Amino acid sequence: MNTQSPLPAPGAPLQHYVSIAPFDLQSVEAMTAEQSKVFQASQLRLMWWKFRRHRLAVVSGIFLAALYFGILICEFLAPYNLHTRNMDYIYSPPQQVHLFHNGQLVGPFVYGRQMTLDMDTLKRNYIEKQDDVQRIRFFCKGDSYRFWGLVEGDRHFVCPAENGQLFLAGTDRLGRDVLSRIIYGARISLTIGLVGISFSFLLGIVIGGLAGYHGGIFDLIVQRIIEVLQSIPSIPLWLALAAIMPITWSPILIYFGITVILGLIHWTGLARAVRSKLLALREEDYVLAAQLMGAGSSRIIRRHLIPGFMSHLIATATISIPGMILGETALSFLGLGLRAPTTSWGILLTEARSVSVIAFYPWLLLPMLPVILVILAFNFLGDGLRDAADPYK
C-alpha cells in the first residue's frame, strides 16, 4: 500500500509554511543545555575544556606548578642547610622511613646508624640500630639559613630528631644531605629554562618574524645563518661558547652567561617555525587591510600576525624548556657550565662521574630522577597544549 502524499497537480501553487515568531539567534535550532553551553563558550574556554580532558597533561601541569612553587621556599622545604656537613656520616646511604616499631604505631621515624669501615675496600658500612628510634619532626627549628639570601630563618618543613639524622636520599663525599641539595638545585635548573627560553623566544620571534614577513634578501641571509648554526655539533659549540666566559666571573654572571649560550643555540628552530607561519598568514585579507590603513610592519607582526599563532608558540615553549634544562645539566656535568658553590642538578651529577663512585654509592645518581620527571612532564604538558590549541578539531 502506498503511504506517500500525492504530488500536487501540474500548475497548482505550492504551499509554504512560514513561522511568524520573532527571530532569536540563540534558538535557531533546538539545542540542549549542553549544546547551548558549548555554542556560547569563548575560544579560551573551549581550549581549557579540551586541555582538561588530557589527563596526563593536567597532572603534568600540576606537578610542574608544585615544583616551581617549591623553588620559592626551598630553604623551608630542605631538611638541612645547603652547606651543612655531617662528617660522621660521609657516603651514608638513604634511610628508610618506618611507621611501626615492635608492632606499635610510632609515626614516621628512622633508625639511628653506626658506621664501620671495611679495611679491605675502605668502604663505609652503616648498620641500623634497632633500639634507636628517631622520630621525624615537622614544622620545626633546624639549620639556620638566609631566605633568598636576605632574611634569616631556621624553620623547616621536616627535620631530623633531636641529635638525630635524616638522610632520605643519602649523603655525598662531604657528608652533605643529597635531598636538600636536590631541592636547592631545582632553583637554578628550573629557572634557567625559563630565562633561556625567554631569550630564545625574543631572537626567534623577531628574526623569524622579519624574515617571514619581508622575505627577499633578508630571508635568504637568515636561512643560511640558521643552516650553518644547525650544522654545527652541539658539544663543540658548547665548548667554544663556554670557553668565552672568564673564570673570574661570579656565579651570577656565569648563570646569565649560560642562559645566553642556551638561547643562542635554541633560537634557530623557533625562528623557522615563526617564518613558516608568517609566510602563510601574511597573505590573509586582514593583513592587506591593515597595510591599506597605513599600519607599519612591526605593528602588523605584533598585533595581527603573532596572536594568530600564539597557541603554537606556547606549545613550542613547553617543549623547548626541557632542552634548556638538559643543556644546562650537560654543560655543568662536563665542567663547562655553572661551578660551585652554585648548586644545580648538573653540578650534583658531577659527583657521580666516576665508575667506582657509582658502583659503591649509587644514590649519588638520584639528581637524575627529577631531571627525567621534569622533562617528561614538560613534554606531556606540551602535547596537551598543542591539542587544546585547536579546540574545533
Automatic annotation (TrEMBL):
InterPro entries, per the entry: MetI-like, MetI-like_sf, OppC_N
Membrane topology: Multi-pass membrane protein
Pfam annotation, one family: BPD_transp_1
Ribosomal protein found in the keyword field: no
Record field: transmembrane: 56-78, 188-213, 253-274, 309-338, 358-381
UniProt protein name: ABC transporter permease
Cellular localization per UniProt: Cell membrane
4Fe-4S as UniProt keyword: no
Superkingdom in the source lineage: Bacteria
Organism: Mesorhizobium montanum
